[in-house]
């Protein structure tokens, strides 16, 4: 049984990756952070399913606590390590630049050091990001494209990206970077734009919300499905040699187009409900992202399986079900009605 160590297992990708690896009979070890409210919601079904086995194991840790990372790598001796943990919200990285940078730079470096100092050969995956490109190029971005970070988040990702290749080249370690373009799902955090839109539109449909406030509607992103993208992470660590790969769909859509597609699925006209506010504009916007996944297709045999339309459909269906349950709780007086998520 192979062992995988995953940081950020409670996040969107942590959910899909741990599910994939458990289905492949891996023993999965993941780190969670102490929080005043329970933060394992996304993986609770997996915790229930595997509670009587030793296949899923969780530990308190933090990327800033290098001693716990060292201890865990030594104790678990994983075959594969997936570093998914990060303060992953670009807009928040401008508000909390030091935490974002410390987590995004010292975190991966501490983990790389723990891997380097281990007697066992451990494969390492770094969650790199298309944000590193900065979004000024209109053409398709590949592994050779210039990195031009525009936020504390992206600058930290560039550092970790380079350190991953430096450790690969300097110490002959099996370290790979997955340069993933935006990927979404029903498990996407509610403050990222796609999920903010599908959640709000579903609540509007059921009368639980009457407006949606967004920032820049003209930004465009290459949006794929997270379930497809975690397969690429695993494929990278099964490849003969470590390297860097772009994972994307090769199509880009604006926030406005995502809005239109979502509201249309619910027979609503988005223009009646959506307003914009400077509150959601960023100090330095990444305007346009479009990836070229040719290398991943040719070398890993990876291709996206989910279309833009199917992704929107999947997210709307899930959020409509969530809104229906919320409506019952509000009707029974068990939940206070809220008109718009104030923190999104
Ligand atoms: P996510 O849903 O925001 O999950 C982030 C995870 O990191 C959560 O488990 C979070 O824990 C954990 N975390 C945050 N700060 C931490 C710290 N200091 N120490 C330990 N754990 C910490 O992100 P995601 O969408 O799954 O993305 C996974 C990774 O891929 C991230 O590194 C992200 O930057 C990168 N990425 C994402 C995309 C995308 O479009 N989704 C694209 C490219 C790259 P809590 O649950 O306790 O908050
Ligand atoms: O959904 P977003 O917050 O994602 P963003 O900034 O592209 O970052 C995500 O993808 C990266 C990969 O490229 C990851 F590395 C990163 O961790 C994260 O997962 O914003 C997408 C676009 C932006 O241009 C933003 O300005 O949507 C625009 N937008 C417009 N109104 C909004 C809003 N974004 C958010 N979050 N909230 C809004 O109200």
What's the mean pLDDT score? 96
Overall, the morphology is globular
The computed structural class is: alpha/beta
Number of strands: 13
- In the CATH hierarchy, the architecture of the domain at 3-184 and 224-247 is 3-Layer(aba) Sandwich
Low-confidence stretches: none
Main sheet properties: 7 strands, parallel
Fraction of residues in helix: 40-55%
- By CATH, the superfamily of the domain at 3-184 and 224-247 comes out as NAD(P)-binding Rossmann-like Domain
Strands side by side in the biggest sheet: 3-2-1-4-5-6-11
Any idea of the CATH topology of the domain at 3-184 and 224-247?
Rossmann fold
Identify the CATH class of the domain at 3-184 and 224-247: Alpha Beta
Distance, first to last CA: 41 Å
**SSE order:** EHEHEHEHHEHEEHEEEHEEHEHH
Explain the layout of strands and helices.
Elements: E1 3-7, H1 12-23, E2 27-32, H2 44-49, E3 56-60, H3 66-76, E4 80-83, H4 90-95, H5 97-116, E5 123-129, H6 152-171, E6 175-180, E7 183-184, H7 193-205, E8 212-214, E9 220-221, E10 224-225, H8 226-238, E11 244-247, E12 253-254, H9 255-265, E13 274-276, H10 294-300, H11 308-331
Parallel strand pairs: 1-2, 1-4, 2-3, 4-5, 5-6, 6-11, 7-10, 8-13
Antiparallel strand pairs: 9-12
Helix pairs in contact: 1-8, 3-5, 5-6, 7-9, 7-11, 9-11
The structure holds NADP nicotinamide-adenine-dinucleotide phosphate and ligand G4F.
NADP nicotinamide-adenine-dinucleotide phosphate is lined by residues 7-8, 10-14, 31, 33, 35, 39, 62-64, 84-88, 103, 127, 129, 180, 182-183, 189.
């Amino acid at each position: 049984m192979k062992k995988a160590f995953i940081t950020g297992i409670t996040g969107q990708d942590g959910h899909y990756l741990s599910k994939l690896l458990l289905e492949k009979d891996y023993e999965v070890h993941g780190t969670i952070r102490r929080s005043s409210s329970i933060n394992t919601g996304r993986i609770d079904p997996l915790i229930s399913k595997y509670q009587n086995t030793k296949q899923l194991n969780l530990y308190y840790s933090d990327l800033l606590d290098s001693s716990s990372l060292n201890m865990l790598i030594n104790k678990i001796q994983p075959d594969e390590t997936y570093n998914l943990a990060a303060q992953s919200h670009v807009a928040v990285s401008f508000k909390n630049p030091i935490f974002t940078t410390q987590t995004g730079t010292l975190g991966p470096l501490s983990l790389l050091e723990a891997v380097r100092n281990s007697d066992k050969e451990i494969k390492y995956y770094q969650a790199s990001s298309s944000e590193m490109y900065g979004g000024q190029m209109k053409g398709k971005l590949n592994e050779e494209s210039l990195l031009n970070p525009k936020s504390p988040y992206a600058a930290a990702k560039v550092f970790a990206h380079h350190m991953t290749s430096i450790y690969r080249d300097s110490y002959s370690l099996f370290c790979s970077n997955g340069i993933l373009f935006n990927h979404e799902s029903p498990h996407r955090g509610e403050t990222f734009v796609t999920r903010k839109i599908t959640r709000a539109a579903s609540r509007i449909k059921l009368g639980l919300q009457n407006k949606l406030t967004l920032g820049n509607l003209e930004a465009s992103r290459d949006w794929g499905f997270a379930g497809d993208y975690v397969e690429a992470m695993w494929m990278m660590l099964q490849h003969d040699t470590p390297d860097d790969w772009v994972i994307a769909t090769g199509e880009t859509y604006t926030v406005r187009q995502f809005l239109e597609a979502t509201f249309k699925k619910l027979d609503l006209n988005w223009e009646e409900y959506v307003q914009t506010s400077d509150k959601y504009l960023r100090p330095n916007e990444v305007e346009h992202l479009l990836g070229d996944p040719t290398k991943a297709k040719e070398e890993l045999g990876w291709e996206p399986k989910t279309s833009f339309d199917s992704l929107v459909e999947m997210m709307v269906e899930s959020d409509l079900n969530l809104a229906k349950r919320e409506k019952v709780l509000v009707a029974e007086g068990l939940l206070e009605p809220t008109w718009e998520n104030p923190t999104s």
